[in-house]
Structure prediction request, 66 residues.
Amino acid sequence: MKAEKLREQSNEELQKQEKELKAELFNLRFQTVTGQIGNPNRIGECRKDIARIKTILRQRELGLAE
Prediction:
């Protein structure tokens, strides 16, 4: 997901999306352990999306957002 697209969303939407991504990441890790994962690259994508969301929320908190 692009950071530009994330910056257009409100804080509440970002927090909701972060929660959903964390749940998806948990499920992907569970699938990895059981050997049922379809796309192992999705784990990295989820982690990076979570990091992007946290970065944007932190920037807004500090008043660094443009």
